[in-house]
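Sequence, C-alpha cells reproduced for absentees:
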Amino acid sequence: DRDTDKKRIEELLEENMVLEIAQKQSMNESAHLGWELEQLSKSTDLADSEKSFVFELNECASSRILKLEKDNQSLQNTIQELRDASLTSRESSLKFVELEKENQQLSKKIEKLQNQIEKEKQSNQDLETLSEELIKDKKQLQVVMETLKADKDRQVQ
C-alpha cells in the first residue's frame, strides 16, 4: 500500500510539473499577445473603446493566469502534505483510505486545471484572432484615410 501511495504521489508530482510548464507557456503566450495588442493600440489611431477592450481582455487573461497559479500552488502544498503523511504515518488502512480519497480529489483538481489550461489556450487563440482582426481593421482605416486625403487634396486643387 505504501509503495502504491508513493507511486501515485510521484505520478501526481509529474502531472503537476507538466501543468506548471503548460501554465508558464500559457502565461508567456498571454503576455506576448498582450504586448502585441498594446503595441498595436499605441501605433494606431483606433478609438478609445477599442483600446479599452484590448486592455480588458488582457486583464481577464491575467486574472485567469493568477487563479491557475493559486490552484497549482494549492495542489503542490497538498501533494507535499500527502508525501509527508505517507512517510511519517504507518497507521491503519483507514488512513490509507483517507489518502486515497485525497489522491482522487487531487486527480479531479488536476483534471480541472488541465481543462482550465485548455480554456486559456483557446482564450489565447481568440486574442490572437482579435489581434489579426485589429491589424486588418487598421489597414482598412489607413486605406480609407489615404482615399479621403487624396479626395481632399483634389478638392483643394
